[in-house]
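Now for one record.
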Amino acid sequence: MRTPNSLFRLRSETQITMAAGQNIPELGGYDFEFTSVVPDDFECPVCQLTMKDPIQIGGCGHRICNICLESLLRGHSPKCPVDRQPLSRDKIFPDVACHRKILDLKVKCSHVGCPWKGELRAVQKHQSECLFKVVECRNKGCKEKLTKRDMINHTITACVWRKVSCKYCRGSFIVKNEQQHHNVCQKFPVQCTKNCGLSNIPREKLLAHIRDDCPLTEIDCKYRNLGCQSAFPRTRTKTHLESHMESHLNLALCGLETTQNQVKDQSKQIERLTSIFNDQSQQIERLVAKITEQSKQIASLTFTVQGLVQHVERLGDTMKQGFKPKSINDIEEGMKVLFEFWGKKYRGTVRYVGPVPRLGNQLGIEIDPAEEVEFPPFCYSRHSGTYNGKRYFSCAPDRGCWVDFSRVIECYEDDNSNVAPDSLLPM
């Protein structure tokens, strides 16, 4: 058996080191001061502390902390630290009974000054609530560390980094910045800067006080707009008005005369402007009548133009209609034609009209790109604008064709590009 005091230690360096080739594991036992006697077989042979989550090794029956065992198993050729027997994950298991007995042991709280003693199983819950635990002040900027018991008072009443509410504006500020806040707080009470003796004026109302109420503020005479240039403290207003009554009256009479003259001038100007307005109104009426007449003329011309446009469109449609040529002389280069060849109809553009040796008068036609040509491969009529090595016209490769006049079904003329739109060619 070991006495409680002999078990209170941080680490036992002399017994942690394993045999040659073994890793030094992370300590995994309970590092508390026990008030009850701890049996020797509750001590981990690796970390020399009271075992935490004890694991029993099958065969030899020795026990080790779970964390210490995992550290051993990560090493090369792990062995039992007591009898040096090989370790295997297949032959280890948690020792629940031993674990329960260890949790029954009595310990002291590790926080300095705390009188708490209790079962090991309760220590974690206690320490999470322990008032002797040292914590850091939660106020941003404060690095003070005190026990929870002392931290409560520090945080609420002593910490210069705590936030408080301004009793004037209800805004918040850090205690250490109190003076800075008061220097800008709009509701902080200040004295009149004119030294009139009034204090406790909210800063936001100071300018209004000086402008409207302060007896020492210098103001202009209320007859300034009539010509009085005097300025004096607000307290002397009555004295000034009484002593300058006659001069103020003279200024008022002069001002009245000036106003009467201005009214006369403005009346004349109004009459002149009224006459101009009447003349312009008559001009506007005449312009409106003229615009109305011109609008009618424009509407009539628009109707006429629309009729002409429709007539031109009808003429254009007539010009674009196809026709049946009576002879080869009716066909010109550049015309669009619909012709029949090898049992099928094709569309194309006339590129050549004239004689071809051994073929007679022929039409050299470039077949439209959209047409799928199905001439027999041996057909001499399909070419690229040549016959017997001589070029008669230019066209896309293998899109040329010699066609007799008798195979032409219809011709089409285009007054712009000599190419009839596909939509006008019959299928």
